[in-house]
Queue: 4 jobs
Job 1
Amino acid sequence: MRRAPWIAGIVGVAVLALVVLFATAPTGREADTSGSVVGRLAPALEGTTAAGAPVDLDKYRGKWVLLNFFATWCPPCVAEHPELVKLSQVPGTPVQVVSVAFDDPADKVTTFFAEQGGDWPVLVDGTETSTLDYAVVKLPESYLINPEGKVSQKLVGGITAGEVLEIVGAEQ
Amino acid sequence: MLVVVVVVLVLAARPAPTKGVSDQRAFALATQLKCLQCVGESVGASQAPLAVKFRQEIDRQLRQGRTDDEILNYFAQRYGRQVLETPPSTGVGALVWVVPVVAAAGAVLVLAATFRRWRREQQGVAPSEEDEALVARALADRRDGDGAAS
């Protein structure tokens, strides 16, 4: 009979520990902000486009920037692309799209944009550490950077033009 | 043969180097990082594009002369501590280390209490007078039987 309080105590501690672990475990979009750049100044990003033109993210300070990590070999990125085109073509759009190609040769990126449309800076070189600086995990991922240069949102998976404009409208 | 086996095991169990640039050190670091694009795989064992990027960055930082801690911290700062294969020993993560110790200590206490109770119960058990008389009669009967046979 005296064993019962001990066993109950041990089971109680174990259950309590599990409840705490489950209660504090990150879920859904919350997980994206742990250890990420959201809320911080956007990490520096400099590189060159497929045409060899230099691009510095800092140049866009004062504008909203949608920094999009993608790859031409990634089907969800291909599916997302028309929405980026739409966003870039909204008359007087407050958002500048900038893309970073993940492990993609310049010629493939050039062909992809020629076929799928889109006319915004696409960095293909000099961005080796940017994927890690922005804590990219799965493609496509986009970072909405506000005019002060802070990362406002991390958008995992395909975005829509309407979603981005709604966020920007709400934060302006 | 046994000596050869022991030598091989000892050499195989040597800790990975923590200085210099070597594949062994790079692999040891990669196995301490989770592949975030995989399930249950470390960066060292994965061919996922992000794991390859991680390994390239490990190589780059090794060549820059960074320490193991600096390299692991680089990834933890960007991806959060959950990128590390070893849970942190502080905060909620400490439960992973504390709970098994508490459970083991509890189990030892329960066992010790149980053994003590069994010993006490054994000490309290003594034959009754009736039992002793029964045994004495049985022994006497056997002796009588042996005497009659001889």
Note: The first strand of chain A starts at residue 46 and ends at 49.
Job 2
Amino acid sequence: MNVKEMREKHRLLSEYKYQLGTIDKGYTNRTLYINVGDNTIKEKPVTDFMKEKFVGGKGFGLWYLWNAVTPETKWNDPENEIIVGTGPICGITQYPGSGKSLVVSLSPLTNLPFDSNVGGFFGPYLKFSGFDALEIQGKAEKDVIIIIDGNKGIVRIEEAPAEAVDGHLLGEQLTEMYAESEEDKKNISVITAGSAAEHTRVGCLNFTFYDPRRKVVRLKQAGRGGIGTVFRDKKIKGVLVRFKGTKGNLNNPHDISLINKAGVRLHREIALYDHKQNNMRKIGTANIIEIMDQYDLLPVHNYKFGSHPDTHKIASTVFIEKYVTQGMADGCWYGCSLSCAKAADNFELKTGPYKGHKVCVDGPEYENAAGLGANCGIFDPEYILEANFYCDTYGIDTISVGTLIAFAMDCYEQGIINKEITGGLELTFGNKEAAIELIHQMSRGEGFGKIAGQGVRRMKELFIKEYGADPQVLQDIAMEQKGLEYSEYLMKESLAQQGGYGLCNKGPQHDEAWLIFMDMVNNQIPTFEDKAEALHYYPMFRTWFGLLGLCKLPWNDITPPDNKYTSEPAKIPEHVQNYFDVYEGVTGIKLDEASMVRQSERVYNFQRVFILRMGSGRRIHDRVPYRSLGPATVEEYESRQERYDKQLKELVGYDPEGKTTEEKMAVMRKYRESQYEQLVDAVYKRRGWTMDGIPTLEKLKELGMDLPEVVEVVKKYL
Amino acid sequence: MIKVNGFDFPWEEGLTVTKLLEKKGYTFHTSLIVVKINNEIIDEEKFDTTLIQDGDDVQALHIFGGG
């Protein structure tokens, strides 16, 4: 069926016409609300209160979600929302990494408010179409698409029975369907999920942008937290925005020269130094695969180890030389010269429903290679690209999928599950055929793939309840917290990063803080107080990106040559100043470190209270599986025995001579668990929280976040 | 004996910055490792020729903030 025939099968459910607006200093000052259950479409004003307290992006998303749900709301209730926020800087084209959207929803994995950031053109086009955010609520009866025409001022909900569900096909179909010409395709961006998002809890959203050189629709992912599952549960197939007329000044900034100057500085740095530094323009985030291995930080075999002799087979150089097309303008929004959105073209698939198709694979990102590859003991670049492609088009998060397959393999090798339970799949580490079949089963909603796709926490509970697994063993090796799978770094030797994961509002994702080098290698934050300071500043700084619509990568994946002469090189002070300049250039408001941290603290503490309101957010919920703190098995201890014995002697004052591994492990465990608890104390204190992890009234008052509804939640716990 | 990032590390005759980074397994991009000897920054171009003396306090700060 061609796209014309598909379109003829659409049935209009609702149409809304709106006045095209203008953007004033980064804000359109209105948002778009759509209920796919009763087909309501309306506008909402953005108030000064919202801008002052929540800034934009994920701040707006959290505020809307708070007002949409109750403590009893579940992720699959119609009340749950998916909010796509932009932020005042989102959409500028002068400074790299300024096209991010922030997606907020109650997560099917955690049932907590979750935020996920994503590139692609949707966020900027949404804003240029007249809206700072898109708020979607309700559940449709049949598959629908939402179309926003940002030039004509029309929003439609249409039943769409004939289009594909899988992301790479649907992205192409809708782009083709609504573009007026080949030239017009670049003016369209689509949000899709995919077939596996329907059957699992790890669904992701794909945000597209059209690549005119490759002539394909590219996919960027709001990967984490299962928001693609919410999307399909609402029976939304796709959301499309079309906007023609992108220019550099559409944000109507206060002072464009400030933005231009900062942009020129950064573009120059990237041009001069990227090839000597992280090689982002050649291979993107995958540049660190071999580096993580060399520093014993690459998760291998469900986070047992940090390196493997076969890592060279999936090193970044392999992807550069054999698979990833070089010399392309791979920015996921206009003006991003860091160009990290790499792709392998004409990659021939070996398995699954698209076997034999030659496709464009968006990736590999570091996390894909580490999670789908090393963590599962698979060191095959073609498997990594194939699994990467299928996860994207099936609409599932590569990180959660990597970690949950690694967990299933660990359980299989320990005899906790067997072939009878897996439906014949021999889930040993390294078995790529079994791993890809598991992913296909997630798409079909069948077999052990459907069970695994519920995530690590639910597998763990099932294995204990149905198969008699030892709860302690599974608690130690199941790499999830708050219900979310860990992302792909080995954190055992960095106490600060254990906190970076364990004390992250949404669950163990590294986008609040990545402190491993500062801590484990550089030894720059030796005391609990030092680590707590880092676990305050960096999460606040990185929260700020999510309020403004910014990408983290241009902050510290390129470094000015004179950065080493600054007092705090890890912060990249020149780039921080760039951000303040860009913020002032857009909004007209001067910002410094203290006021930036304050903006983030308001939203961060609000999110913590929101989590509390939904039944989590206390100290007990910040506990972590032991494998994230230290060697959970004899095999792990003995693989790095010299290191651990030395630590016992020097840090614990325990003589390992003549002791069994089990005896040494017990002492090590007691020490490391105690260290983590002391870190939690220090971080809570620094953040202005009680020792149970609750923001105090004084802290909320100081931040101006002592809103009556917030205080009502908190005071029950004080 | 020298200190490297606050920890003891054996010194040897002819130990340059480059050799030290190799011995420590610090394979990260050298342009992103800030090396200080007794609090004095060493330019990357001098890593091969700068000799570390017994008793020196060396910092090798990796500037990388992860994914």
Note: The first helix of chain A runs from residue 3 to 8.
Job 3
Amino acid sequence: MGEVILKMKGIDKSFPGVHALKNVELELRRGEVHALMGENGAGKSTLMKVLTGIYSKDAGSIIYEGKEVEFTSPRESQDAGISIVHQELNMMNHLTVAQNIFIGRERMKGKLINDREMEREAAKLFERLKISIDPGETMGRMTVGKQQMCEIAKAISKDAKVIVFDEPTAALTDAEISDLFEIIRDLRSKNIGIIYISHRMDEIKRITDRVTVMRDGEYVGTLVTAESTKDDIINMMVGRVVYEDPKEKSSVPPNAPVVLKVEHLNAGKMVRDVSFELHKGEILGFSGLMGAGRTETARALFGADKKESGDIYINGRKVEIKSPQDAVKYGIGYLSEDRKRYGCIVGKSVAENTTMACLEKFMSGIFINKKKERETAQKYVDELKTKTPSVDQMVRNLSGGNQQKVVIAKWLARDCDILIFDEPTRGIDVGAKSEIYALMNELVKAGKSIIMISSELTEVLRMSDRIVVMCEGRKTGEIPIEKATQESIMHAATLRE
Amino acid sequence: MKAKNSLGTQKLAAVIALVVLFVFFSIFGEGFLQYSTVISIFDSLYYIGFMAIGVTFVIITGGIDLSIGTVCICCALIGGTLFQKGVPMALCLIIILVIGALFGLANGLMVSVMGLPAFIATLGTMMITRGLGSIVTNTASVTFPTGDAEGAWYKSIFKLQSQNLPDSMLAGIPTGFILLIVLAVVMAVILNKTRSGRYILALGSNKEATRLSGVNVVKWETLAFVISGLFAALAGISYAAIYPTLMPGTGNGFELDAIAGVVIGGTSLSGGVGSISGTLIGVFIMAVLKTGLPFVGLQPHYQLFITGFVLIFAVFMDVLNRRKRG
């Protein structure tokens, strides 16, 4: 490891309703691979966005190569030598590899673009990285792994001194991961500083020199990887003081009837032969890493995506669910992880959103009874303690937690018995989180059943009566809450084929 | 409430523009302010007005219907041809409306079931209907009955003319205006007070969220296109009532006038927001311009020139409004 190339100190950043970063620090040396770890929503990506100038910071300083800097755009940070390899690939699929790598700084021959020169340079880059990719190939025709390599090549081609990898292995196969690590080691030997964001503990041990852990937008600490154990890191990530202790035993009576049974569900690559049962009054946690196929399973079950095969039984009766309409008819409600896109209609009012799934209950003849609609919406606003000036308020103007309550109200108004909560507290403040938790507990007490998909282990352990773990589209574990630990879940979540 | 407010400001601006225009022409246009002028304003706006009311629904879904102009003429040509072949007028009118609705249904299915972009699907229908009009009529023009001829009664749906009228009203009684207003009210009620309207607004705002709420978005999106087709056919009838000789291969461009009216009235092309009253105001602005400009010594083609500015200005107001809301 060389001298310090980058130092972030006292970084603070707030968004309306969320304090995303609180006094965060990070130090990176030349020739170091530095892991940035934390649960989803810990603030890692936000910190990187502050570094690369996508967000402006509210307070704190960034010292880069000995000088205080403040980048106002990704372009500026790139020019200074900080590149980021994003988790989602930002590639133009119709252009060639070389055209993608040199986008925005095309090699020219007079007034015309010199494609041949760019392909030559790209080929040289790939040679340096020891990977075989044809620079003239169309980007969209390559595997995700190769596309990722192209992103890396692009980052390097800009003479980067610092490269940020944001969960680079999420979509890679084992062989590709090995290749990637080869490249990272090579970059390290060339004295480039590398920030490596990942959830995968084994990778951290394999490739990184130091680890900085974040939790709830705060800096927790920095460890030297070789001197620390997996448990040290996990403990720092999880922090034992979280809101409430994990649930100790299931609150579902042993003779509770099965309300939903899914058998051998198949839908694309992400849902492979998934079977499970949901009992009345149960919260069934769905755990797993990013991309494990949990959301896909829920969407296939709900009829939002096509399923290839599989049987669904509701209260013991086999049902055909081909569309969300069917699912709603059978009393299933789905609360999407992406509320603004799939959960509520942000351009419409609280009242209109509340009645969206059961408008037929609010009809007087052919007309919508708006008085009754508003009364019902108001009833749920009171019951769920939704903070809104009125039921006529547009959902856009509510905070994340309150938007979630509007979606819950929608399914309660429809009187759904089975609710699928997909990441119910993502992007929601700590305070509002406990309210959502309390609400979910009340719902199961009232006889509803809940499937809860969550990437936060503490949330899964706190809320679930039973936990289904998925990895790469398959169910890799089913753990009663009495036996569940973070370790046992993580173990199942990384059971690759 | 904010959605309504933002729609409200643009609509208000449109109303003010309409009043200003009318006052301007009344003061500076010699002979503008008289009964016959009002009638000719009405005459010139019926067909655009009906089309605009219908296409408002499609635009609210976030789609577009480019075929209304040619569907309007095509339906009228088919109806007129049938009448010449001896089919009673009443039946002809019904057939015209049914054919229009069927073209709308075809558009709707292409968009909502087959997944074609609305622009492409309706562009195709636009070409098909334009061609079909020529095929059916064998490229000859079709003349609807006028005066006291048999079957000419349908004209009084839109304009009641009679020798018995007092001199001051010789230009006719604009019954079509009453029909336009009545239908506008009915469609406004459907849009704002019924489930179909609510779902059309909702799916225009966020189609996926609406679908995931268990709403049959295919059905309601298709319905919007059917309404559009039906009103295009009605526009065809009103067109034939005012301009009885129809040429095949025409109708192109009507749709853009109608869409301009809708947009000036505050309906957003990105969907989810819109009103029928706004659409009517938008259409009126264009009609007043068209009729009024000759009175201040400008030829009607200045209408296009000025309408273009009005359109850009109106939408820019909307964009500004949106930006303010962030």
Note: Chain A has two domains: 4-238, 258-493.
Job 4
Amino acid sequence: MKKAGKVHKPTTTRKRLLLFVLFGWLLLILGDRVGELELYQGSFVATYALAITSVVLLTGYSGQLSLGQSALMAVGAYAGALSIFNAGWHPVIGLIMSALIAGVFGLILGLVAARLSGPYLAGTTLALAISLPTLANQFPILGAEEGIAFDVGPAPARFGEDFSQYKWFFWISALASLIMVFFIVNLLSSRYGRTFKAVRDNPVAAQLSGINVEQLKVSAFAISSGVAGLSGGLLVMLISGVSPSAFPLSLSFSLLGAAVVTGLYNLKGVILGGLVLVAIPEIADSLVSRIGGSDNLTTVLPGFLVSALLILAVVFTPNGPGHLLKKHH
Amino acid sequence: MTQFITAVLTSLSSGAIYALMAIAIVLVWRSTRVINFAQAGQAVLTTYIGYTVIQRTGSFWLALVVAVISGAVIGAVIDRFFMRPIFKRVKSGPIVMIAPVVATLGLLGIIQAIIGFVWGITNQSIEAPVSTGGYKIMGTVIAFSSYNLLVLVFVAVAMLLLTLLFQRTNVGLALRASAYSPEIAKLSGIKVDSVRTLGWALAGAFGGLAGMLYIPGYFLYPNAMDLLLVLGFIAAVIGGLESLFGAFAGGMVLGFAIIFSTTYISPKLFFPTAFIVLIIVLLVKPAGLFAPKKSRGA
């Protein structure tokens, strides 16, 4: 999937589909070879990669800096959980509802957001990120602090007895992420995606060329919200339930950080970003156990590593690792 | 009636603290066009320094002075040795708007991690220097204490000093000129870079004051100011980001809206109120309530 959309040679949709299928097939084989823990971590990588995709789409491609991605993920998570838990729908429908409802929510929000720019947009989305999860406490149907269960159930019996729950999680999250990212990559390499870039790089020139800037920003917001919603649904599937505390503000910050670290201006790095988010707590743990630090160190080290990475990325590869290789005027 | 008086008084003292944080954010925004998310970290750091002073000497007042001064120093150091090199490095490309914001987010994480490492992540508390027991009005104890009154006085004095600095001194003129048009200010012989650093120092001092006044009554831990930062930011955006008076007014608007909705409707409306007020203000006036008429293109 990383190979999709080479810089100079345009890749056709069919070639890209082949690459995605190939990548999915590789994951399938890999999934049979690794242990339960790796499968579980792999599911998180796929989920975070999808969430980072939504950030790249919104901030990198349409130039709207949002700090509220965790709130949109929460909307998707609650929509999915309600569809499965309360309405009793099939989990697949639940995940589709995650994307759909979050997308509609994003559409409404985007109508407001398109009027705002820079710090005003950042402020509004930041306020959303802290206020929306607390709203869940207001309505009994949303389960208050305890939240509601998000249960996709065990794997179908036809996959065999030894098909574990974690492998099932991995299949679902990897497949959902692959399909969604495939859709987004195609969208961005279409005429539509080029207008995104035009609006980001020079809104005035884009407008003069007949592009409806406001409409484009709103649709970018809606699509990005849908992607975030699906990743939110996947995330709470992995932790088996949704509650306000699953979507802290720090999640938004981590996603933005990962997006910057792996390059805001293309989707090639999103898996790397997911890996970084999953790997950093592990690296911190092993570092602490090696040098024998205190409990304090264990708690603060992951945050320190993410932040340090963020600053290093801004200082050394502000436009993403890919730009180091590319000549730029 | 008592409830109403209580609500008005607590709105004033909450709003005053939001206003301090909003002013810290506006001072940095005016001088460098950056939303400084690290302000939450800076304010917590200075409050921890104040906490250490209290542990050693037992004096809140000395701690307050030390916190404000160290806030100014930390702010200046961050601008001179962190933000300025980043601005020099990241000059072109679409990242220009986002890089500084991301850098301050990273800095916030690093400061909080260092605090957690040095002071630990457990809750600490700071005793207020005066009584926090509520006053009595018509026989009932209200939720407004001598300490709240003290906060109001301090914020009023700080606002007055800041206004005097900006309106009556040459340094203030330089600060205003550099914010209004850096190029022309530079041509007129103002050392714009130094003035920017001064802006960061002033902001750091206000953050230090906000932290020391906010923490008594709450707990002190590495993330203690995150909420205050968000509220201060919302207040600053409501006020239009450019204007110091706007930041103060934004803090007060937010204070009144939050306290009144939580008193009269539901205590759970704290965050939703902040969001709704912000959305209403931005829909009616997208550039905030007190934005200058001529935008300088942020």
Note: The domain at 2-284 of chain B is CATH 1.10.3470 (ABC transporter involved in vitamin B12 uptake, BtuC).
